Structures are given as structure tokens and as C-alpha cells.
Amino acid sequence: EVQLVESGGGLAQPGGSLSLSCAASGFSVGDSEMSWVRQAPGKGHEWVGGIDNAGVIVYGDSVRGRFTISRDNAKNALYLQMTKLRPDDTAVYYCTKSWGFRLHAPRGQGTQVTVSS
Which of 40, 45, 63, 115 could bridge across to 101 with cysteines, CB 3.0–4.6 Å? Predict the structure, then answer.
């Protein structure tokens, strides 16, 4: 069974940093296309970025240069390092077993990130 569990969300001040983790089971992260997706209050899903099975990483325009995606194949985990956080980064963040946002792709329960002073 494919399972994804995000952790690490919380409250950060503008300009601050947070790190998210996604623990995967039932498949290999290193052999899969994986993405981070977020959904802000009252808005649709936004693709934050993704990493493919070759290790190629692509970021969405709104986070490029501020967020970093990585993975640890030995731990079967995906990570999102977020820096220079802005209030408009406030959202529920999900890791998904997909490239881009796919409505029916496996994803975790999400973790809340709130950026506020």
C-alpha cells in the first residue's frame, strides 16, 4: 500500500525558514516522480516543484530560488527546504507520487505552513 506522511509544518515569520519531510512507504521514492503541491485557503492546488527518477528537479515560478527539493533514497523520504518565506506561502503542503498536481495521485494528509508576523 502506498503511503505518504508529511511533517514539519508550523508557523514562521516572513523571511524565515521551515523544512518539510515526507516519509514514503509501499514504493521507492528514488524510482518515482515526486512532487510537492500546496493549497492556500480558498485557492486551488499549486505545484511547488518535483523531482523525477533521474534526480532532475524543477520548481514552480513562485518558489524558484527560495525552496529546495531533495530526497534520501535510503530513508525513502522527500524533503522541502523553504527559505525567505512570504505570507503568500501560507498553505497546506502535500507530497504526491506524481509529476505535477494530479487529482487522484497518492498524497499525504498534508502539513500546514503559516507565514505571519
Answer: 45
Distance, in Å, from the CA atom of 92 to the CA atom of 73, rounded to the nearest integer, reads 24
Distance, in Å, from the CA atom of 56 to the CA atom of 7, rounded to the nearest integer, reads 23
Strand pairing of 18-25 and 10-12? Answer: unpaired
Q: What is the dihedral of CA 58, 93, 91, 67, to 10 degrees?
A: -40
The reported pLDDT for the residue numbered 97 is 97
Closest CA to 48 of 74, 75, 77, 85: 85
CA atoms within 13 A of residue 57's CA, in its CB half-sphere: 15
CA–CA gap between residue 61 and residue 64 (Å, rounded): 5
List per-residue pLDDT tens for the chain, 117 residues long. 999 999 999 999 999 999 999 999 999 999 999 999 999 999 999 999 999 999 999 999 999 999 999 999 999 999 999 999 999 999 999 999 999 989 899 999 999 999 999
